[in-house]
Amino acid sequence: MKTPIADFCRDYAQSNTTRLHMPGHKGEGPLGMEHLDLTEIKGADSLYEAEGIIAESEANASQLFGSRKTFYSAGGSSQSIKAMCLLACQHWSAEQEGTPLFLAGRNAHKSFVQAAQLIGFDVEWMASEEDYSLCRCAISPDGLEMQLERVMSEGRRVAAVFVTSPDYLGNVLDIHGLAEVAHRYGTMLLVDNAHGAYLKFLPEDRHPMTLGADACADSAHKTLPVLTGGGYLHIGTGAPEGFEHGVRDAMCLFGSTSPSYLILQSLDLANDWLEKNAPAAFSKTVERVSAIKTILSHEGLSLTGEEPLKLTIDCVASQVGSGLVFADRLRDFGIECEYADRDVVVLMFAPNNTDDDYQKLSIAVHMLMQVQKHMPASDAPRPSFSNRLPERVLAPRDILLRPTETVTVSDAEGRIAADVHIGCPPAVLPVVPGERVDRNAVAVMEYYGIQTISVLK
Length: 457
Description:
The chain is α/β, with parallel strands linked by helices. It has helices at residues 4-13, 53-65, 76-95, 110-119, 141-153, 175-184, 208-211, 220-223, 247-253, 261-276, 278-298, 315-318, 323-332, 355-372, 396-399, 439-447; strands at residues 69-73, 101-105, 122-126, 160-164, 188-192, 215-218, 231-235, 303-304, 310-314, 339-340, 344-348, 404-408, 452-456.
């Protein structure tokens, strides 16, 4: 597959052109990649007005992902999430009056809450159908249908349904079923697929674009060979007609007008790798991860989540003490995890992990289990996450320009939250801006080590 952005930047770097333009490093510097770092010079195209090499590269990505249209982000999924929320609101406003309403899984990334604040749409949160953990928000097609029926029986309509899948622990929702329900009730399904860009290239294609989502945000850098910050906004083939027309303006609204050409080159080069290598590479990686999961299970670890390239250790069920301590012990063996809290340790794999990586993990766990097994878990009771949402006092947007102060979490009960406080987005939000901090929210934040919170004065 052609790589027009990378080819242009490489050719320019080799042209010995005098650089009397930005960036200020002029192609020289200690990183060794400055010669490839450009700006919107003649021929380089412009991300938010793409009609040349960037548009050509995005078309290649669209072909790979099976979307109606794919757009690049140099600001990760955060930029794409905000943009697709704006698009849904614009579509709503073209047909309806009033404030757009979103139904959203409670484990939304903070960028979704920020979108609600900046754009001004309303959110009705869907709590998890299972009391599970900080990151999971289990939403079934039947559960979504009940929510939509209730809202419509009250004379309200829903502009979009927003869900997160996969979540941080590797749990995957039934996107196909959720899309069918959303469409049956005349609304759209938007998916935060930040952790799942690779799902398109598995032996069984499980990407939201294939399963019927109207739009989704992918963090390419999380699971593909792309520099940090590289992402996609995909518009599905079944999205409303013309839905993609405002994407570039929406992306520009939430991103820098100087997007990194290093990131754009990595997205461009990834297209060629995805076409030539991805199916075989991911198939092999799925087999490797499945094998290491079996090994760790035999060692006595309890694993959770069904995402094929994520390994989540339930340290409570495994009786190995705190996940934070277990992660520190892995670091003693030269292994850095993706995420750890008091309950879990999350490890992420990709095709670039070597045989030595798997072997090192196997040896480390074997040795750790000799000393960690049957270690006591935290004395603190695990807080509840099911159907216990705090009282809403104000809409998130109403908080944005009000004076705030920072208080300790222990003194926050009864106060109105002014920010999102959670350490590992996307995660179940203990309290959202505009909600009253209750005792359960305090317990959740204290359990996960959050010491202070921003509240209204």
